[in-house]
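S., here's the first fold you wanted:
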Amino acid sequence: MTPAAARRHALAIADELQALGPVEVTRFFGGAGLSCNGRQFGFVMKGTLYLRVDNTTRPRFEEAGTGPFTYTSGPREVTVTAYYELPQSIAEDPEELLRWAADAYRTAHTARPRRPTARSGRRRDDSTH
């Protein structure tokens, strides 16, 4: 799925989730992110919707037979355990989709902010040297 197709898919999902509040669709690597009130709670990648999870909501995804988002980086596979694939049966049920997305939004809203790493730290101002 192209980034443009992922964006169209994400826009259709965002329309279904307007009860959460204003759902925004943003660029997210090769897909499209879903955010509400500045908090990303999901994304569409290669035609699949992934939602934010925590220790409380993750078991529901696992019981439904879905797993975390993974991608390949060079020779290794990276697993992102903060986002799990939404079960197809849930995606096809508007009420359940809204319920699972609301849980993902609450999870994103209560998640601790990421700490800056050395790579994401301040850039040196070269004009002072």
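And the second, which I think is the more interesting of the pair:
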Amino acid sequence: MPAVPLSSLRTGAAGVVAHVLPPQAPADELLVRRLAEIGFLPGEPLRVMARAPGAEPIAVRLGRSTFALRRFEAAFVQVESA
């Protein structure tokens, strides 16, 4: 199954990070680096814990940590089903 953006997963969905998309613009470079630094690396399992009304932010459990990502940020993380 092809990888899908983390932003498209529903609450409760689990998966594994396939990869993080490369920056689309110079401003995205810091975001992509930050995602890698906090652990969004290939092979890492994750689960969508919650979504706020309006779909933003998205609470994502990665390892023992939970992160709140904006939909724009979550779209860079490509996920394969677990």
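Why I say that: The beta strands are 4-5, 14-20, 45-51, 58-62, 65-69, 77-81. Residues 28-37 form the longest helix (10 residues).

Talk tomorrow,
H.
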